């Protein structure tokens, strides 16, 4: 049983390694066959950009937002792609609805607006 488990684990790890090759929008992507998605991550109450958020689109390597909350992810395959955002504490996404964008090869896909987050810091303790 241990040998079967190890074989399955090795097969899964090999699949993950192969699936991960070529991602990230590094020098191995062709801008004519992939797309780019720029955008911003913004705190909904203040309108301020959120620095240090990690944005991933279509499974490509995450990119960090600038101090103004801006990001740009390149090398995204064409089609409908899921947008995933990992936020620094204490922020959370303002909506729990999954976010998608439709990427066109050789083009820049403009999101309909910023990705909104809210500050969910806990209230101060009673005095």
Structure description:
By secondary structure, this protein is of the alpha+beta class. The chain has a single domain, classed as Immunoglobulin-like, CATH 2.60.40.10. It is built from one helix and eight strands, in the order H-E-E-E-E-E-E-E-E. A four-stranded mixed beta sheet has the order 4-1-8-6, with no helix packed on it. A hairpin with a 5-residue loop joins strand 2 and strand 3. The N terminus is likely disordered.
What is this structure's SSE topology?
Blueprint: H1 2-20, E1 35-43, E2 54-57, E3 63-64, E4 70-76, E5 79-86, E6 91-93, E7 99-103, E8 115-119
Parallel strand pairs: 1-8
Antiparallel strand pairs: 1-4, 2-3, 2-5, 5-7, 6-8
Strand order of the largest sheet: 4-1-8-6
What shape does the CA trace take?
elongated
CATH topology: Immunoglobulin-like
| Strand count | 8
The name of the CATH architecture is Sandwich
CATH homologous superfamily descriptor: Immunoglobulins
Percent of residues in β-strands: 25-35%
- Distance between the ends: 59 Å
Helical residue percent band:
10-25%
| Number of domain modules | 1
The main pleated sheet reads as: 4 strands, mixed
Computed structural class? alpha+beta
What order do the SSEs take from the amino end to the carboxyl end, as H and E? HEEEEEEEE
Mean pLDDT over the full residue set: 79
CATH class: Mainly Beta
Rg, rounded, reads: 18 Å
SS element count, helices: 1
Task: State the main characteristics.
127 residues, 4-stranded mixed beta sheet, Immunoglobulin-like, single chain, 1 helix
How would you sum up this structure in a few lines?
The protein has 127 residues and is α+β, with helices and mostly antiparallel strands. The protein has one helix spanning 2-20, and strands at residues 35-43, 54-57, 63-64, 70-76, 79-86, 91-93, 99-103, 115-119.
């Amino acid at each position: 049983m241990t040998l079967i488990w190890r074989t399955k684990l090795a097969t899964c790890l090999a699949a993950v390694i192969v699936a991960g090759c070529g991602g990230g929008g590094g020098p191995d992507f062709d801008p004519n066959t992939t797309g780019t998605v720029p955008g911003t991550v913004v705190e909904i109450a203040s309108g301020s950009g959120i620095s240090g958020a990690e944005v991933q689109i279509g499974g490509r390597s995450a990119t960090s937002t600038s101090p103004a909350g801006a990001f740009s992810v390149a090398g995204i395959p064409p089609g409908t792609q899921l947008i995933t955002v990992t936020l620094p504490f204490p922020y959370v996404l303002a909506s729990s609805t999954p976010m998608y964008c439709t990427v066109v090869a050789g083009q820049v896909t403009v999101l309909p607006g910023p990705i909104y987050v809210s500050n969910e810091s806990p209230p101060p303790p009673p005095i």
